Each structure stands twice: as structure tokens, then as C-alpha cells.
Amino acid sequence: MPMDSVGAVSGGGIRSIVKPVRDLIAHREMLGLLTKRDLKARYKDSVLGFLWVLARPLMQLAIYFIVLGNFLGAARGIPDFAIFIFTGLTMMGLFQEIAVGGTGSIIANSGLVKKVYVPREVFPLASTGAALFNFLVQLVILIIATILVGKPPLHVGLLYAIPALALVLVYGLAFALFFSAVNVYLRDMQYLVEVATMLLFWASPVVYSWQTVSQMVQTKWLVEVYTDNPLTLAVLGFQRAFWVAGDESAWPGDLLLRMLVALVIGAVLLIASHRLFLRLQGNFAQEL
Q1: Burial 7-36 (b: 16+ CB within 10 A, else e)
Q2: Does 11 fall in a domain?
Q3: What sign for the dihedral angle of Cα 215, 240, 135, 122?
Q4: 136 domain-assigned
Q5: CA nearest 101: which of 51, 6, 167, 35?
Q6: With the CA atoms of 163, 169, 171 and 176 taken in that order, what torsion angle do they form, in degrees rounded to the nearest 10?
Q7: Which of 44, 91, 242, 282 is the most exposed place for a label (fewest CB within 10 A)?
Q8: Where are the alpha helices (DSSP H) in 149-247?
Q9: What is the pLDDT of residues 52-73, one digit of tens each?
């Protein structure tokens, strides 16, 4: 019987895309087990357990709200500043968890990679699943907060949450697949991704508004480049969805169209990252 090498991408066309997806579907139970294991391992022997999911974003919220919002005056002109901040933190936190966790996932599971055959994509996907769980917990807190301030997101802008979440998932997973494969051969990549995600955080309108950037930067094309950053679009979309106090604020023109274009580009990037992952994964066991 002819045998295919692990990760071999034979030929091209639709088969080279469908076969890996079918392999992942066949191993969906393994993916679920790895996701649960990742979540349990994070909070093993912890008294508070999954409550720690909230610790980091709430601490960040407190620091940014008090230091940037009040001491440095960033809250001026931004109504319901706490909701504004937490909305951006929720979106960027998801991206950072997917990208950073996914990048280190192959090395973190080196024992399984060397001993058992499963599609190697399940490891960054499991990290993505764990990140989504944390995101959902934070999203519930965000919704409760909007209700407490008397401005629940009961408006048509809530629909922006769908393409915003899709953008973070597509680009986050593309990053995770690409850098997790490269990280096996170049271990410094994980630290580089951590620095890059930190820079992307500050390059997105999380602790300051897009309106501030559009007013301060006089060069129009620079504002356009900044706005068309997929993470900027994702944060803006999530703000449109959950920051009801910002309904009267200025927003980029054709925001939904920009998000859809970025989503198409992201889908192409995801496919390309997956193809590279498939080509590199054949030597993972030897490198580990």
C-alpha cells in the first residue's frame, strides 16, 4: 500500500485543500480533548480556577481607566470610557491569545508530535479553542457591564460583531499556523510574536479612539493605512457593536465594506499559511 509522508501536499487544486480539512474533521474528538486539556492545564491546582480568566483583562481595564483615562485625560471626549476600553481589550486579548498561544503550541506538545500521528494543525487550533472560551467569558462580562451602565447593545450596530470576530479569528489563526511552523525551526519566533502583538495592541484604537487619530494625523493616506489595519477594523467593529455611547461618534467611511475586504484578504492569507504549515510539518518530529 502506498504511504503518504506526514504533511505531504501532493499536487494542487481543490484536493490539496479538502484533504487536510477532512483529516481535521476526522480528528475532531482529539481537537476537543486538547482544547479541554489546555484550559485545565492553565488553572491546575488554582483555588480560583477559571475566575483567573477575568483577572488580566480586569486589571488592564483598571490600569488604563485610572492611569490613562483619568490621570492622563484619555477619557475626555470618550463617553462610557470603561465600556470603550473593555470592548477593545476583549477583541485584542482574543487575537493575542490565538497568535501567541498558537505559535508555541507545537513545541508545547512536542511529546505528542513525536509519538502520535494527528494532523499537526490540531495544536494551534486547540489553542484557538481555549482562547475562544476565555473570550466568551469576557464577552459575558462586557454585556453585563453595558446593562449596568444602562446602555445594552440593543441596536443594529450589534451586527458589526460578526465580521469583527471573523477578522480576529482568520488573522489570528493565520498567524498561529505560520509562526507555529516556523517556531519549530527558529525558536526565537515565539518571543518575536509576543513583541509584535504588543505593538499591534498599541497600533489599534483600544486605549484611544479612532477619532483622535483621524484628527491628529493630517496626512490622509496615513489615516487610511492605519484604518485599514485588520485589527483596527476588528476593534472598530466591536466598538460599533457594544459601545452604544459611541453611536453618535465619527466612524470611518464604508466600515463594513472595509471589514469584508480585509476578511477576503485574510482568508487568502490563512490558506497560504496553512499550505506553508503543511509543507514544513513533515520534519517537526525530527526537529523536536
Answers
A1: bebeeeeeeeeebbeeebeebeebbeebbe
A2: no
A3: negative
A4: yes
A5: 35
A6: 180
A7: 44
A8: 161-185, 189-202, 210-216, 220-227, 230-242
A9: 667 777 777 778 777 776 776 6
Note whether residue 9 is domain-resident. Answer: no
Q: How far apart are CA 60 and CA 122, in angstroms?
A: 31
Number of domains in the chain: 1
As a whole number of angstroms, the distance between CA 288 and CA 196 comes to: 25
Identify the residue whose cell numbers are 476593534: 235
Residue 81 to residue 269: CA distance in whole angstroms: 34
Residues 208-219 have pLDDT tens digits of 889 888 888 888
Containing domain of residue 219, as a range? 17-39+50-287
Residues 258-282, buried b or exposed e (16+ Cβ, 10 A)? bbeebbeebeebbeebbbebbebbe
Mean pLDDT of 242-250: 83
Task: For residue 222, tell me if it sits in a domain.
Answer: yes
